[in-house]
């Protein structure tokens, strides 16, 4: 693998670690299977790109992208909480709506940020990391967000949020408003995803209406890899797992692409991601549920010749 | 302290599955009273508790706690006035939160939760450990353990401490020892009586054991078919034994107590 491919994979991994943190908040902490992500990621990218093209300071533009992600999460949560729309459907509705909204925001299917000033530009002048400047900046942001999520989940509001996701009956009895917690958590979750989109547009130099496809699955893949490696019970380890999981996943993909493994090409990425997630979920269920044993099933599929009694 | 006035609740109203759960319950509980509630299956005991806690809304009637009309308030808005221990040990605590975090969550019940670290410093930890040591379950050394790793008895004891951590108006115990083994059940029951007596709490405890309903608390209510059938308190209650309760039940309803789940001893 070339240095360029390696740095590209690490950049993408660090970007998606933010998505994984968001997915951790919605899927794991809140138990809200949130599909908004596929819309809020390109929304963050689109809003930031448009702001930058209009000459707005890139840091402010990144904040705008993050906040637009927050809004998307709020809408999904509000649909679910206020109107009792099934959580899965609420996310899908927002995601579908966002496709049109993103086209409206950009006014065309994609915006190039080539030659524009981004939040990475000033660091490229200060830091002398060459190819690795973007990765270094992204690493700092990803770590900051990991510690932010750790801190938040340890606050009084954070504890209420965790209780609400895991045991809503108990949470209510402890005066936790479950609906409000869903809204807070989803807003935060999609804010992280919006931030990831904003940084994606700036590091890749383009915002595209179709770049959201498969975001949720990649985020889940990263989350599950992290959980497998570091466990999912302690918050600090789970968020650390999001970072490592996302980077490992992108490295794995990059390695598979560059080695021509099984003839995988760039367009197969979503298929590979889906398969990885499906297999990971099946395996983690097999581990959790002792009744489900993969090995005997496999053995039954390939029956061994039985020794004859004689 | 707690008044339930003319409470009616029907589940699945207007369908063939309609079940009248409460049919005109009137109940007044004075401050400091420890009321045990007993009754056959489907008598409405748990529904009454749910109505007080806010989990089910009344079709008719009202619930007043300390003079406040809470009839229309959802559970989370009453929770500041109510401490609660559920039947199922897993229901009252959060498995993936540590013992300390569960207690911290209970410590902010009824208040405004802020973006402030929920866990206190070492002094607060010592205080919590001291309170946990009173439970006599060795939990004081396991502040950092996930609640999911505790035994059923330990979780119920923790629930009990969480419920009584803050001053409150009424403590609700919904068959909170029914899912425990006899040893743990006895311990948790003793603890409940001890804490209630010490803090002079107003409490409402549902039990399946007639024995316990007379041995604990200061007043016994027997429910049947969504109504309060018997209400025994004061000097009169001291002379009562389980056979007296059964006799009284038979005299009032004209039927025998027939319920496998109702423990007579």
CATH level-1 class of chain A: Mainly Alpha
How many E-type strands of chain B? 10
* Annotated CATH topology of chain B: Rossmann fold
N to C succession of SSEs of chain B:
EEEHEEHEHHHHEHEHEEHH
* Number of H/I helices of chain A: 13
Give a nutshell description of this structure:
The complex is a heterodimer of chains A (310) and B (265). Chain A has 310 residues and is mainly α. Chain B has one domain: Rossmann fold (3-Layer(aba) Sandwich).
Structural commentary:
The complex is a heterodimer of chains A (310) and B (265). Chain A has 310 residues and is an all-alpha fold. Chain A has one domain: ABC transporter involved in vitamin B12 uptake, BtuC, CATH 1.10.3470. Helix content of chain A is 74%, strand content 2%. Chain A contains 13 helices and two strands, in the order H-H-H-H-E-H-H-H-H-H-E-H-H-H-H. A two-stranded antiparallel sheet of chain A has the order 1-2. In chain A, helix 2 runs antiparallel to helix 3 and helix 3 packs antiparallel against helix 9. The longest helix of chain A is centred in the N-terminal third of the chain and has 27 residues. The termini of chain A are far apart. Chain B is an alpha/beta fold. Chain B has one domain: Rossmann fold (3-Layer(aba) Sandwich), CATH 3.40.50.300. In chain B, 34% of the residues lie in helices and 23% in strands. Chain B contains ten helices and ten strands. In chain B, the strands form two sheets. A six-stranded mixed sheet of chain B has the order 6-7-8-3-9-10, sandwiched between helices. In chain B, helix 4 packs parallel to helix 6 and helix 6 runs parallel beside helix 7.
Task: Compile the SSE list and pairings.
The complex is a heterodimer of chains A (310) and B (265).
Chain A (H helix, E strand, L loop, with lengths): L2 H27 L7 H17 L4 H26 L3 H20 L3 E3 L8 H6 L6 H22 L1 H11 L1 H6 L4 H27 L1 E3 L6 H16 L4 H24 L10 H20 L5 H8 L9
Chain B lengths: L1 E10 L7 E11 L4 E6 L5 H9 L6 E6 L2 E2 L5 H4 L3 E4 L3 H4 L6 H9 L14 H12 L18 H13 L5 E5 L7 H17 L4 E4 L3 H6 L3 E6 L2 E7 H5 L3 H12 L12
Parallel strand pairs in B: 3-8, 3-9, 6-7, 7-8
Antiparallel strand pairs in B: 1-2, 1-4, 4-5, 9-10
Helix pairs in contact in B: 4-6, 6-7
